[in-house]
C-alpha cells in the first residue's frame, strides 16, 4: 500500500489558491504574521516576483476560489495592484459568476475607485480587517482606522460587492462584555454577509507578548473571554448568521468557500513570502522573510524553504482535526473511504471517549463538537494528532 499521499495516482489538482501580500503601514502590537512595515520600495519587486512564481505553474490553472491575504493587500498602489490582479487572472483564471475571489482590505483604503478596480479585475468578495467599531479599542490595538471609517468602508464596499466580511477581535485588555456587545450590535446593523471573530492572542514575537510579560497590560480573564465568545454565538445567531465554523459566521449561502478548502483537507496553491501550499500530498512553505523571498526569485532560485511529504496517517489525522472545526463536523463515510484502517480505528476509539465525556456528538452521519466543547476545542485535538 502507498505510504505517502504523493504515491497515489488520483490526487486531485488544486482549485484554490492563496496569495500573501506582506506589506503593512506598521506592525500592530499584537501581530506575529509574515509582514514588513513601511517598505513601499519593495512593492514593485514583490509584484514582479509573484508574477515569476505564478509563471512556474507553466500553464494557466482554472480556480474555484482565490484568496489574497496579508499583510495589507490594499496598500499596493493602484497601478501595481492592477498588474498584480492581472497576473493572477492570467495564471489562475476564475469564473467570477460561480467562483469566489476574495481580497483582504484595510478600512482606510476602501474607496469607490478601489472597489471599481477590484470588481473590474474579477474580485467578488472583500474581507475587511475591521477588528472593532470603537475608537478606544482600535487605539489599544494600534490600528490606523477608527470606528466611523470602518462603518463607511463597509457601506462603500457593499455598493460594489454582494459578499462583504468583517473581522472582529474580542478580549482586548480593558474590554468588557458590554464593549464587545456593542461591536456585535454595530456589525449586524451594517450590510455585511460574514463575520470572523477572534480572541486576542499573545504570540511570542509580538510586542503585546513582551508587554504582557512585563505586566504593562493585563489580559482579560478566561471567564470573560469565554462569555465574549458565547455572546458572539448568541447575538450573531439571533441576527440570522449561521455559526458554520469555530470562529466564523455567515448569512445563508455566504460562507467563505476558500477557507472551507482548508477545513475539508483539499489541496491548494500558495504564492508569496511565507505562503504554505498543499499540492499532490506535499506541504510546502515559502521563505518567510520577504527580503529572502525576493532575492531568491530574482536570482532564479526556488522560494520554497520547507517541504513535507505527508504520509497517510498524518494526513488522515490532520484532515479529521481540521474538518472538526466546521460546526457540521466530519462525515464519517468520507474519512473511512480515504483513510487507512488502523488510523481510523485509533480515531474512532478517541471519538468514543470524547462522546462519553460530552465533547463530541453524532448528528446526521457526522461527528461534531457539542456546544460545551466549542470554547475549549483547541485542547481536544492533541488526542488525535
Ligand atoms: S494590519 Fe494586520 S497583518 Fe498588518 S500588522 Fe496589523 S494585524 Fe498584522
Descriptive notes:
With about 375 residues, the protein is α/β, with parallel strands linked by helices. The chain folds into 2 domains: about 260 residues, tm_1862 like domain (pyruvate-formate lyase- activating enzyme, Alpha-Beta Horseshoe), CATH 3.80.30; about 70 residues, Arc Repressor Mutant, subunit A (Orthogonal Bundle). It contains 13 helices and 17 strands. A hairpin with a 2-residue loop joins β9 and β10. α1 packs parallel to α2, α2 runs parallel beside α3 and α6 runs parallel beside α8. It starts with 15 loop residues before the first strand and ends in a 16-residue tail after the last strand.
What is the chain-wise order of helices and strands? Answer: EEEHEHEHEHHEHEHHEEHEEEHEHEHHEE
* Assigned CATH superfamily of the largest domain: tm_1862 like domain
Mean pLDDT: 93
**Percent helix:** 25-40%
Q: Please give the radius of gyration in angstroms.
A: 21 Å
* Morphology call: globular
Q: Count structural domains.
A: 2
Strand content: 15-25%
Low-confidence stretches: none
